[in-house]
């Protein structure tokens, strides 16, 4: 059976068994997200090009690179709150990840936002207006504060660069793809009876809705595209786009799972392409020919330095391959 056929059969079976994957305010089956994604291995550059041509010729897709293929789709805020945390689910003992409300990520984000707003004017001359919450979260994200925003890009090649830059020897990396048109349609469907949700599809109206309602307890359980009006130079260079979990649960993949219910889409809307790092030299060389490197994606001296670091790693990989040797993982101490 094809990847798409296997995915469709699996997701239809899940949807027929259960149309809701939460119990009260607690999370169940945080680890079951893999059941909802289509996975395909990509061994070389030509195969990567074939995948893009076959599946992503239309607009409406966003991409994200992971240096380790089995890393989850999770925000920095979620990772900070829930990493290595598991709780017994007494009602559903087969569900391994039930999280009490006290550690839900969004219960902390508002405090981080307020603390950042109170001090930011000491460091920047032109901070966002207080009501522009998305702009504040994007600024926090840029400077390393955990938020609910998850960074994506409209370019699969930029996502591939980040996957390769953060990859490790002898471990596959991955490029994720998600259908943003599907996200927008599901958000509209789930918000039909929400008078706050904008009927105007214009981006500014959408942003105004998000700025007013990010912390509203009655938000639909959806992930949406959430781009601030003021994009910094780095995000623009990377063709960046943010995805935002509107729910008050605060875990990206749980909310995505809920969006598949009760009627799943007819074809995969979330892909993970596992990239074999044995081909890293070829991939990085091809991306450099396209001017996709640290210097172009991170304007400034730091970005140029990042590009030199990755090129050094690739040069070493290439030299080792010529001598039939392999690079091994080693701690920096």
Descriptive account of the structure:
The chain is α+β, with helices and mostly antiparallel strands. The protein folds into 2 domains: 3-280, no CATH class; 293-325. The chain is 42% helix and 13% strand. It has 13 helices and 9 strands. The chain has helices spanning 3-17, 45-55, 76-82, 106-120, 133-142, 156-165, 180-190, 203-213, 233-237, 252-259, 280-289, 294-297, 301-322; strands at 22-23, 26-27, 38-42, 61-66, 149-153, 173-179, 223-225, 240-245, 270-275. α6 packs across α11 (280-289). The longest helix is centred in the last third of the chain and has 22 residues, at 301-322.
Entry keywords:
single chain, 333 residues, alpha+beta, 2 domains, 4-stranded mixed sheet, 13 helices, 13% strand, globular
The average pLDDT score comes to 82
Total domain units: 2
Instruction: Estimate the strand proportion.
Output: 5-15%
Report the principal-axis shape: globular
Low-confidence stretches: 19-28, 87-98
């Amino acid at each position: 059976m094809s990847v798409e056929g296997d995915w469709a059969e699996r997701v239809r079976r899940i949807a027929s068994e259960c149309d809701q994957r939460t119990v009260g305010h607690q999370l169940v089956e945080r680890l079951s997200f893999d059941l909802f994604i289509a996975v395909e291995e990509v061994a070389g550059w030509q195969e990567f090009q074939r995948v893009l041509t076959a599946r992503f010729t239309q607009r409406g897709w966003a991409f994200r690179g992971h240096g380790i293929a089995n890393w989850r789709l999770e925000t920095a805020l979620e990772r900070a709150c829930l990493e290595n945390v598991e709780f017994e689910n007494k009602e559903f003992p087969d569900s391994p990840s039930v999280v009490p409300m006290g550690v839900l990520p969004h219960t902390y984000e508002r405090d981080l936002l307020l603390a950042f707003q109170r001090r930011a004017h000491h460091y920047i001359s032109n901070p966002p207006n207080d009501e522009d919450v998305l702009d504040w979260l994007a600024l926090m994200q840029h400077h390393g504060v955990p938020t609910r925003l998850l960074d994506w890009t409209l370019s699969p090649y930029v996502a591939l660069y980040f996957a390769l830059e953060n990859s490790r020897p002898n471990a596959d990396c991955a490029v994720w793809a998600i259908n943003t048109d599907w996200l927008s349609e599901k958000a509209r469907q789930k918000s039909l009876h929400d008078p706050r949700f904008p009927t105007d599809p214009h981006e500014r109206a959408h942003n105004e809705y998000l700025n007013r309602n990010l912390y509203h307890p009655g938000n639909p359980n959806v992930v949406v595209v959430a781009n601030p009006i003021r994009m910094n130079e780095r995000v623009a260079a990377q063709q960046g786009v943010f995805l935002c979990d509107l729910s008050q649960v605060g875990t990206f993949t749980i909310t995505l799972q809920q969006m598949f219910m009760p009627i799943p889409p007819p074809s995969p809307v979330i892909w993970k392409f596992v990239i074999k790092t044995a081909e890293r030299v070829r991939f990085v060389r091809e991306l450099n020919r396209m001017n996709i490197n640290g210097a172009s994606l991170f304007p400034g001296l730091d970005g140029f330095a990042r590009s030199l670091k990755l090129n050094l790693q690739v040069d070493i990989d290439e030299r080792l391959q010529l001598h039939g040797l392999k690079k091994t993982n080693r701690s920096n101490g």
